[in-house]
Amino acid sequence: MTSNNVISRWIKSFFNVIVFLISLIAYGSRRTLVLSWLGNNGYRLGFFEGIIATVFFFYIADRFVPALNEFINGIRALGRQTEQYHTSSPARESSETIQQPQLEPSFPLERWEFLWFRYVEDRSNPWGDFISQSYKNELNFDEDWDQGIVNNSGLSNNVAFKASRTIQLENAGRYIFRIGADDGVRLFLYNNLSETKLEINEWKDQQYSEFERSVELPAGVYKILLEWYEHYGAARARFTMTL
Ligand SMILES: [Ca+2]
After folding, report:
1. How far is the CA of 158 from the centre of ligand 1 (A)?
2. Ligand 1 center to residue 224 CA distance, Å?
3. Strands 141-146, 235-242: pairing kind
4. 146 CA distance to ligand 1 centroid (A)?
5. What is the predicted pLDDT for the residue at 199?
6. Strand intervals (E) in the chain
7. Cα distances (angstroms) measured from residue 57 to each of 18, 25, 122, 241
8. Which residues of the chain have pLDDT under 70?
9. From the CA of 208, how far away is ligand 1's center (Å)?
10. CATH class for domain 112-242?
11. Which end of the chain, N or C, is less packed with Cβ atoms under 10 Å?
């Protein structure tokens, strides 16, 4: 096929199909886009600390766009939050595909995963824009940000997290959970059948307060979900689990 034919086919084609495959650690997605217009098409990909993104574009319309391919090769990375943007043919109107890291807690084994969001003063859905993802190895923690910036969110007010992890309990026993928060906090403990074994719900604006419950647990695998928000003023989040 000559390059003229390629260009001609390119311009005349109403169906340029992109198979867009993204592989992330413990996460993958694939989709097909059917573009029925001509002109520039923008692609935006955001990814976040701790995630390796490998992206493949495959054009059924005969070939890769070299510049696009270059863009794809450029985003394999492990590092701080970054975002890249590229504009290429053939769509006239801007159309973008945004691949977010998973926004639901992933309950990793042996470390906390923190998903940071803007806090919205809405009891039915307090989760605003996703900000970033971070991790913490230690099971027990006490983070006191006082009036300052909360973690690396860039925010000192109206910020929230969903923290999750999976734990393996070698010993049965009565475990003591103590959580502390300024402002709101709620804790859920699930067993491997996703049954709720413990729930503490103190989702409200408050000065730093601590809440303690104990629960008898057989040895086994458990999932912990800790949700927290800071409305305004000082901010602090604490979690301890002891036998
Ligand atoms: Ca506060």
Report:
1. 9
2. 23
3. antiparallel
4. 8
5. 97
6. 16-24, 27-35, 41-47, 54-59, 82-88, 112-119, 127-136, 141-146, 159-169, 173-182, 184-191, 196-202, 209-217, 220-230, 235-242
7. 7, 19, 39, 46
8. 1-102
9. 8
10. mainly beta
11. N
The count of other CB atoms within 10 Å of the CB of residue 151 is: 18
The structural domains of the chain, with segments of one domain joined by +, span 3-92, 112-242
The alpha carbon of 78 and the centre of ligand 1 are apart by a number of angstroms equal to 33
Ligand 1: centre distance to CA 236 (Å): 8
Measured CA to CA, the distance from residue 217 to residue 54 in angstroms comes to: 41
What would the two tokens of residue 40 be?
Answer: 């520039």
Ramachandran angles phi, psi of 151, nearest 5°: 50, -135
Cα(49)–Cα(154) distance, integer angstroms: 15
Regarding pTM above 0.85, the answer is no
Please give the C-alpha separations between residue 124 and each of 119, 120, 127, 203, in angstroms, as whole numbers. 12, 10, 9, 11
pLDDT value of residue 30: 52
Please report, as a single letter, which amino acid is at residue 240: T
The Cα 97–Cα 79 span in angstroms is 21
- Measure CA 188 to chain center: 19
Q: What is the pLDDT, as a whole number, of residue 6?
A: 61
